[in-house]
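Supplementary Methods, section 5.1.

A reviewer requested that the exact input to the structure prediction be made available. We therefore reproduce it here, unchanged from the version used in the analyses.
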Amino acid sequence: MQEKKIQLNTSEIQFNGLVISHITKSKLKHSYISVDKEANIVLKTPNVSNAYIENLLAKKEKWLRDKIEEIKLNIPLVYTLEGIDTKASMEYLRSRVVYFALKMGLEYKQLKFRKMKSRWGSCSSLGIITLNKRLIKTPDICIDYVVVHELAHLVHMNHSKKFHQLIDKYFDSSNDAKKMLARIIFK
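The structure derived from this sequence is encoded token-by-token as follows.
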């Protein structure tokens, strides 16, 4: 019995800024597209035309971009703790609290900073806001979200619908910030 050979060709496709590894297998009956955990895109097809591939990628482009974004959002961000006690760092955090308190028309009694293991900030019923010193190492979007979140507790001491509506009124990227904060690891 004669053994059949499978034709396998690999190439790279550039499509609207996406880089795709294209594998052509003559034995395939259908086309398959996947995104691995490093956000690499692989397209496997039988022998098909360039027009077919372009049409397929156009149909799957939104899904591909969403999948890549999802993977990137789940990659942990690692930060060192060097320099978190500097006066300038705490003054920057203080300035963001003052800025948003004025913008939101809210008054707090006191602002404190300390290293916290499991929280980014807190707000007591006495109007004392405490921010995690490690917050200074996070992207600005995260800093502003935590500040607005804690200030919103001056109005709503819970996580009710009204609380989240207040946050959304002054900060429109809360979902992105929450996802980033969940990925942060300190070393």
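The chain has two domains: 8-73, 78-186. These observations are discussed further in the main text.
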